[in-house]
Amino acid sequence: MDKIYLITDIPGYSPQISHLLSMMNYARHTTLAAVKDLTIDQLDYLLDSESNSIGALLLHYAAVEYAYQVATFEGRDLSEEELMIWGPALNLGDEGRVMIKGNDLNYYLDRLNEVRERTYALFATVDDDWLYVEEAFWYNKPANRYFMWFHVFEDEINHRGQIRLIRKRALA
């Protein structure tokens, strides 16, 4: 936390991976500030029948990060068993509204922390060259793993805006 505003080297990680993790850590820091002290009712609050709850968005972050761990480190899609766990959070929408509710903030924070700890462990096993490996990605266009992991925290930043809006309405 002393270096939250620095994109810098992190012991145990190569330089570019350190920088990527620095950015991911800052994104998570601001997310945690946005959800601090929310109640179950506030985490489950829906703006309307088509919106996602804050709780669902938090679990979505964990699900996306887990899915990218599997895709980039294991070179596979999620299994049927993993989709049973993470599918509602990945898909959000109707499935998420039905399945993701009634959990306190610690439930979501624990899922986020579990997945992030696995990310740290996985990134400790690779170097900067790993980030630049290219694979077919969206619309069958090439992307490197650096971009894929940028997308993990870019998605979090994007949805954090939703969380801030929902929070304002839920506390109103």
UniProtKB/TrEMBL annotation:
Domain of life of the organism encoding this protein: Bacteria
SUPFAM superfamilies: DinB/YfiT-like putative metalloenzymes
Pfam families the UniProt entry points to: MST
Name of this chain's protein: Integrase
